[in-house]
Design brief:
The protein has 9 helices and 11 strands. The protein starts with 6 loop residues before the first strand and ends in a 9-residue tail after the last helix. It has a single domain, classed as Rossmann fold (3-Layer(aba) Sandwich), CATH 3.40.50. The strands form 2 sheets. Strands 3, 4, 5, 6, 7, 8, 9, 10 and 11 form a 9-stranded mixed beta sheet that branches. It has a two-stranded antiparallel ribbon with strand order 1-2. By secondary structure, the protein is of the alpha/beta class.
Length: 259
């Protein structure tokens, strides 16, 4: 009987980059990572940190779409760090390799420990994150790798956004994707660190409840919070096909810049 592959190599952005991912275990990247990456839109060279990067999908998506991006993938799981490094070693990603590095570090590190891990103060123009989103009361998965990627702990947004604020330059942009139920925690965690919050609810179809929120904020801004027009994944209530704009976001043909 032939052996079952432990990994898969998956194409994103219509083949502009590829990702090595675990098969049948762990978190597998998809639409969330691509929507998160679409929030980054820059017209000049910039440095980006992808916190909790997993195998590196969102950070690599930014690097593939924007040639002037220098990307740091930050992940605490040794297993997922290994997948990120495997991805960078793929021949298909050779053009991105020189602009992407991987750091094995816990996002919640503070002070000297964080700096020693390679996350210095005021060193990134953009920080993106897709934090774990399952509540403590959600059904637990026996998959340890997946549980680590999905399990939310108390104060998670506070600690992750604190790190983002520390490593980002003044005026830098924070971007994240989360469940709508986390909106109050996100706003509270941004506090005085970030202002000008723009929140976009993401709906599967018209008439259905939001399943995600896209959030951007600017370090040091005092602008007020703004809820943007909703993003509908599917135009046709009978079809699973993405709308043309969402398909462009998913495949790196468009950005979803701040309003």
């Amino acid at each position: 009987m032939p052996s079952v592959a432990a990994d898969t190599v998956d194409a994103f952005h219509r083949g502009r980059f590829h990702l090595v991912q675990p098969k049948g275990r762990g978190h597998r990247a998809g639409m969330d990572a691509m929507l998160l990456a679409s929030l980054v839109d820059a017209q000049k060279p910039f440095r980006l940190a992808d916190l909790g990067a997993g195998a590196g999908a969102a950070g690599l998506a930014v690097a593939a779409r924007l040639d002037d991006a220098e990307v740091t993938l930050v992940e605490r799981s040794p297993d997922m760090v290994a997948y990120a490094r495997k991805s960078l070693d793929l021949p298909e990603n050779a053009a991105l390799r020189r602009r992407v590095r991987v750091i094995e570090a816990d996002v919640t590190l503070t002070g000297r420990a964080r700096v020693a891990a390679g996350l210095s103060d005021d060193s990134f123009d953009h920080v993106i994150m897709n934090p774990p989103f399952n509540d403590a009361g959600d059904r637990k998965t026996p998959d340890i790798l997946k549980a680590e990627a999905h399990a939310m702990t108390e104060g998670l947004f506070e600690s992750w956004i604190r790190t983002a604020g520390a490593i980002m330059v003044p005026g830098g942009q924070l971007s994240l994707i989360a469940r709508p139920q986390s909106v109050a925690e996100i706003i509270a965690a941004c506090g005085r660190r970030f202002g000008g919050l723009e929140i976009t609810p993401v709906y599967p179809r018209a008439g259905e409840n939001a399943v995600r929120i896209l959030v951007t904020a600017i370090k040091g801004s005092r602008a007020r919070l703004n809820f943007r027009s909703p993003l509908l994944m599917h135009d046709d209530p009978e079809s699973h096909r993405f709308s043309a704009f969402v398909d462009d976001l998913n495949n790196g043909r468009a950005a979803y810049p701040r309003g």
